[in-house]
């Protein structure tokens, strides 16, 4: 979705794309933690992926623009995903700091 041509991106209420960015990166961060990737690694690679995606949107001939606000929504999404994962782990009575490796 991040690299779809601008003409294929559906329109909606103003700034709804920020909600989409937040939800995509929340799902990405949650999934990464569920897969056992550590918090620091998730924050670093998801942050770099978010930044790279915005730069590429501005450079590629896909009629999209780079936006620092989209990047900010991505970063907030990463934080939301990590918080949701932590809450899920706490609800299961498991430590929120580890992935599958620490559960063994």
From TrEMBL:
Membrane-spanning parts: 21-48, 68-88
Source organism superkingdom: Bacteria
Keywords: Membrane, Transmembrane, Transmembrane helix
Keyword Translocase: no
Residue ranges occupied by any VanZ-like domain in the UniProt entry: 16-88
NCBIfam families xref list: vanZ_1
Record protein name field: VanZ family protein
Organism: Rhodococcus oryzae
């Amino acid at each position: 979705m991040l690299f779809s041509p601008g003409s294929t991106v559906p329109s909606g209420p103003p700034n709804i794309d920020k909600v989409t960015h937040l939800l995509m990166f929340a799902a990405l961060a949650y999934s990464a933690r569920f897969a056992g990737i550590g918090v620091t690694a998730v924050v670093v690679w998801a942050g770099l992926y978010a930044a790279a995606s915005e730069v590429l949107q501005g450079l590629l001939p896909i009629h999209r623009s780079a936006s620092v606000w989209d990047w900010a929504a991505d970063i907030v999404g990463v934080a939301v995903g990590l918080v949701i994962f932590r809450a899920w782990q706490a609800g299961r009575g498991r430590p929120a700091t580890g992935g599958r490796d620490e559960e063994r």
